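Sequence design from tokenized structure. All designs in this work follow the same two-part layout: the structure record, then the generated sequence. An example of the structure record is given first.
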């Protein structure tokens, strides 16, 4: 089981301060998709937008990395369409990887439904970080 479906209008989650998170946004949709991450002060960390050229093939619309600096580690991800004119419905979860009792990596995956067909096939946002500096 996973979290949601929830509204894509500001999903709250945490990234520990100091971790460098690398992210990617991929869509398979004809409609213009929109994803934006903000910290707790409302500062925009990234925005991604775009659609699949052919309306359905998996298409990366953004990627990058940032070092989490929010004092409380609090972030809000919004996923929608048309620049945020509508909010999608989102299913998401966190996955951490560990070796023995040591966590080595953590990530979040969010996947959205922008319409009525309920296939949760429209936009995927993923964020991953290493727990330890190499
Ligand atoms: Ca859909």
């Amino acid at each position: 089981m996973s979290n949601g479906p929830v509204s894509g209008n500001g999903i709250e989650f945490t990234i520990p301060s100091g971790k460098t998170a690398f992210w990617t946004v991929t869509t398979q949709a004809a409609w213009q998709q929109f994803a934006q991450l903000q910290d707790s002060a409302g500062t925009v960390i990234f925005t991604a937008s775009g659609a699949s050229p052919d309306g359905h093939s998996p298409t990366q619309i953004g990627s990058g990395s940032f070092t989490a600096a929010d004092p409380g580690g609090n972030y809000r991800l919004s996923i929608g369409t048309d620049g945020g004119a509508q909010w999608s419905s989102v299913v998401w979860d966190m996955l951490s990887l560990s070796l023995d009792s040591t966590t080595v990596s953590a990530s979040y995956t969010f996947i959205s439904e922008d319409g009525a067909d309920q296939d949760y096939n429209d936009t995927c946002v993923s964020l991953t970080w290493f727990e330890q500096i190499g």
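The pocket of calcium ion is lined by residues 113-115, 117, 119, 121-122 (CB under 6 Å). We note this feature because it recurs in several other targets discussed in the main text.
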